[in-house]
Amino acid sequence: MLLQVRASPTFLPSTSSSTSSSAQAPAPSPFLGKSGQRRGGPVSLAAAASPAPHRGVARRSVMAAAGAAPAAKLEDADALIDSVETFIFDCDGVIWKGDKLIDGVPETLDLLRSKGKRLVFVTNNSTKSRKQYGKKFETLGLSVDEEEIFASSFAAAAYLQSIDFPKDKKVYVIGEEGILKELELAGFQHLGGPTDGDKKIELKPGFYMEHDKDVGAVVVGFDRYFNYYKVQYGTLCIRENPGCLFIATNRDAVTHLTDAQEWAGGGSMVGAVLGSTKQEPLVVGKPSTFMMDYLAKKFGITTSQICMVGDRLDTDILFGQNGGCKTLLVLSGFINSSVLTLIYALLI
Ligand SMILES: [Mg+2]
Predict the structure, then answer these.
(1) Sorting pLDDT into bands at 50, 70 and 90, what band is 67?
(2) 85 catalytic, yes or no?
(3) Ligand 1 centroid vs 262 CA: distance in angstroms?
(4) CA distance 176 to 306
(5) Neighbours of 186 (CB within 10 A)
(6) CA-closest candidate to residue 150, choices 290, 30, 28
(7) What is the rounded distance in angstroms from the CA atom of residue 130 to the CA atom of residue 91?
(8) Region labeled Disordered — which residues (predicted)?
(9) 3-state class of 90 per DSSP?
(10) Residue 345 has what pLDDT?
(11) Is 22 a residue whose pLDDT tops 60?
(12) If both were cysteines, with which of 59, 118, 203, 338 could 86 make a disulfide (CB 3.0 to 4.6 Å apart)?
């Protein structure tokens, strides 16, 4: 089987990215990309082409940008595959949309595994733990090991471990179950999360809201049960507990809760806490290089041997570029609505 491209001319502008992972590390974070700041200059999609015909069993829209080199459409998939040993896949919009598997994914993953490539799945969605994501892959008929999955919920716990966050301190969570489970697995005390989802502030004259002075970090991720109680609690911890960290699993503007439309993403929750604290968060998800550095170390691979596959320029592709990887933009997800059918990759 061969991954090919049927494409009209299109391009991405070069990002002239500095891909070193040792610069711009803001204290106290040991990783790059604090608050998701772009390190490679503006990234935008500029494409103009006529629609190509639908063909093949796995119509995938693909553009490629090799490291810091000028981006271009993928002409030789075999050359790309041969040039790297690991493919990192984003999940939402690349592997699935909502609970629907995207066409051609099983064949593509099988093809890459048959060629001996290591596959890793990275998602900014923090609502599930690695174990829960493993079950989702299984439900969709994909055989993926838990060790191959890196969710931002896991990244939050891994980051706290990386800085030796004191075990006698607590973590306040604005987010869902995935973050709690990963914190538990890492041995950290936590409070908040779903149990605070139905709490309300009932103001009376002189009302004073208590908060736990032992909270040393507030982790904010996507939260369908976000409310004012959580914002106030997290704000009190960050503003009043000396040294309290503000950690964001991601700052995604939108997410794919369903395949019918885009939904307000984790960035909306992070933005609320940023607004009340006036503090920038430490971002552990894409495009911060924390997860890239983590898995490169874990698997003992150099980032130049990695190809990052994603559907978003501002998270996935920037994540790959920040890490010094090759990058591959697929138009099956986030970008799809704006430049649908400009380019096609066919699995035949
Ligand atoms: Mg995505």
Answers:
(1) very low
(2) yes
(3) 11
(4) 30
(5) 18
(6) 290
(7) 13
(8) 1-52
(9) strand
(10) 36
(11) no
(12) 118
How far CA 139 is from CA of 58, 109, 134, in Å, comes to 20, 16, 9
Query: Domains of the chain, with CATH numbers?
Result: 3-20+50-124+303-347 (3.40.50), 154-283 (3.40.50.1000)
Q: Which residue among 75, 85, 148, 182 is the active-site one? A: 85
In angstroms, the CA 273 to CA 267 distance is: 10
Q: Ligand 1 centre from 132 Cα, in Å?
A: 18
How many angstroms separate the CA atoms of 328 and 89, rounded? 10
Average pLDDT of the chain is 79
* 93 Cα: distance to centroid of ligand 1 (angstroms): 4
Tokens of 172: 């306040």
Q: Quote the ligand 1 centre to 335 CA distance (angstroms).
A: 9
Query: How remote is the CA of residue 76 from the centroid of ligand 1, in Å?
Result: 24
pLDDT for the residue numbered 28: 38
Distance 311 CA to ligand 1 centre (A): 5
| Res 300 pLDDT > 60 | yes
Q: Is the pLDDT of residue 38 over 80?
A: no
Separation between Cα atoms, residue 326 and residue 70, nearest integer Å:
11
Query: Rounded to whole angstroms, how far apart are CA atoms 112 and 93?
Result: 19
Question: Which range has highest mean pLDDT (53-62, 174-183, 260-269)?
Answer: 174-183
